[in-house]
Amino acid sequence: MGRLFMSEVVKDGRRHGVMGLTDALGYRLPLAGVVSILHRISGVLMFVLLPFILYLLDTSLASDMGFYKIRNLTSGVFAKLVILVLVWAYLHHFCAGIRHLIMDLHYGLDKHTARKSAASVLAFSLTLAALVGLKLFGVF
């Protein structure tokens, strides 16, 4: 039967165990699951980077010199990409949060509607982030 790990239990001649990360990577999630995981990732990203964002805001509002320092710091391509990722995280988290609130009211819980609302969240947040990105990189 092979070696058993502590998380595995033999019951009825079959192994039952806790699914690991490598097992989870083999599954294809439905779109609603992808949106849910992205909602969590975007929340963690915003939480982790909040002190940095607050530092930038504080420095830029403290004086004219601080404002110019932050403006020069955020004028590079890498900084703009980081800002764009943060904008996407906020927009996705906001849109997915509204979707979850609507689902908490017991609307859109069936499979077809949940898939459409998940696709709408992705489309809307990516479209808005793309527009902000175009503005950020000076296209318009």
TrEMBL record:
Pfam families, from UniProt?
Sdh_cyt (PF01127)
State which residue ranges cross the membrane. 37-57, 77-96, 117-137
* Keywords on record: Heme, Iron, Membrane, Metal-binding, Transmembrane, Transmembrane helix
Give yes or no: UniProt keyword Heme: yes
What's the superkingdom here? Bacteria
Q: Where is this protein localized, as stated in its record?
A: Membrane
* Cofactor(s) this protein cannot do without: heme
* InterPro entries from the UniProt entry: SQR/QFR_C/D, Succ_DH_cytb556, SuccDH_FuR_B_TM-su
Question: Main role?
Answer: Membrane-anchoring subunit of succinate dehydrogenase (SDH).
Q: Which PANTHER family match?
A: SUCCINATE DEHYDROGENASE CYTOCHROME B560 SUBUNIT, SUCCINATE DEHYDROGENASE CYTOCHROME B560 SUBUNIT, MITOCHONDRIAL
Cite the NCBIfam families for this sequence: succ_dehyd_cytB
Q: Which family does it belong to?
A: Belongs to the cytochrome b560 family.
Q: How does it assemble?
A: Part of an enzyme complex containing four subunits: a flavoprotein, an iron-sulfur protein, plus two membrane-anchoring proteins, SdhC and SdhD. The complex can form homotrimers.
Protein name, UniProt field: Succinate dehydrogenase cytochrome b556 subunit
Q: Which organism is it from?
A: Undibacterium squillarum
Instruction: Give the gene that encodes this protein.
Output: sdhC
